């Protein structure tokens, strides 16, 4: 294959379309969450991921798992946790079975904010997908996103 190979060109165009769709969706949701709840997309995602933890075996996430779930580096995730902890939305505590481990829970205030922000997030996502579906280069990707059934 060469750099001008049609297969590579098509692959690059597909990647550009996917990147464009992601960027537009994220920007649309970001504006909605910031305007109504003073939350960024990353903050919302972090609250959402952490709110799904449970007290059963393996129910609490380590920082690396949280970072992977919100698609950030561990250091960026730690800074994000600190910001939300400073706002009273998260709290950290030592793992009861391994004193080296630190877990993070969503506070009652964080759960309340997440509950208030979820409809905004969902509506903004739907609006962004509907807008993208009107563009021929993005419509096939929107259909794929709408048919995915991935567990949270």
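^ Assign residues to that structure.
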């Amino acid at each position: 294959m060469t750099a001008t190979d049609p297969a590579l060109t098509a692959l690059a165009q597909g990647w550009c379309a996917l990147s464009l769709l992601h960027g537009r969706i994220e920007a649309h949701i970001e504006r909605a969450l910031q305007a109504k709840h003073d939350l960024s997309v990353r903050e919302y995602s972090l609250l959402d991921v952490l709110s799904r933890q449970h007290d059963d075996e393996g129910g609490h996430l380590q920082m690396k798992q949280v970072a992977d779930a919100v698609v950030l580096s561990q250091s960026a995730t730690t800074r994000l946790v600190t910001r939300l902890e400073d706002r009273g939305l998260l709290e950290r505590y030592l793992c009861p079975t391994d004193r080296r481990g630190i877990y993070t829970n969503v506070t009652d205030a964080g759960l309340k904010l997440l509950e208030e922000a979820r409809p905004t997030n969902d509506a903004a996502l739907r609006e962004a997908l509907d807008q993208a579906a009107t563009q021929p280069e993005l419509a096939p990707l929107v259909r794929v996103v709408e048919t995915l059934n991935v567990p949270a």
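Strands lie at 90-94, 102-106.
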